[in-house]
TrEMBL record:
Keywords: FAD, Flavoprotein, Oxidoreductase, Signal. The lineage of its organism: Eukaryota, Fungi, Dikarya, Ascomycota, Saccharomycotina. This is FAD dependent oxidoreductase domain-containing protein. One of its GO terms (cellular component) is mitochondrial outer membrane. Residues 4-37 form the FAD dependent oxidoreductase domain. Its cofactor is FAD. The keyword rRNA-binding does not apply. Residues 1-21 form the signal peptide. It comes from the Eukaryota.
Length: 132
């Protein structure tokens, strides 16, 4: 298998590295930023806090590894609608689907940390660990 470099250890970079690693590629994951799991807690609060994960995002996680998806999505909160706040007028609630569909809210930093932890777990059981 060829070796590949994945640039960026954010959500997509981590998931891409895991997907390629599971398929036997030799993967190097690089990022100019330090490991977010080592950052000061006060620094983490400066970034966006929640991410809406759609069914498509959940399917992408499950495609790579269904057990991993269950672990990293632990604690997601379903959101069944949103509130629209017009400049002139009353706020209005809008549901996401006609049949109870929802999107899911998760802490972005926690999801990224969980994916980095999954890379470390993958590395323990792999003869081709993902290089960080």
């Amino acid at each position: 298998m060829p070796s590949v470099a994945v640039i960026g250890s954010g959500l997509v970079g981590c998931l891409t590295a895991l997907a390629l690693g599971h398929r036997g590629y030799e993967v190097t994951l690089v990022d100019m930023r330090p490991d977010p799991r080592l950052a000061d807690k006060s620094e983490k609060n400066l970034r966006s806090i929640n991410l809406a994960v759609s069914d498509r995002g959940i399917r992408a996680l499950k495609f790579v590894d269904p057990n991993m998806a269950e672990r990293v999505l632990d604690g997601i909160i379903p959101m069944y609608g949103r509130m629209i706040h017009p400049l002139n007028g009353e706020p209005e609630s809008q549901i996401y689907g006609l049949f109870g569909e929802s999107i899911n809210s998760i802490d972005r930093a926690k999801l990224n940390e969980n994916l980095l932890d999954e890379i470390e777990m993958f590395n323990k059981g792999s003869d081709k660990p993902i290089k960080l």
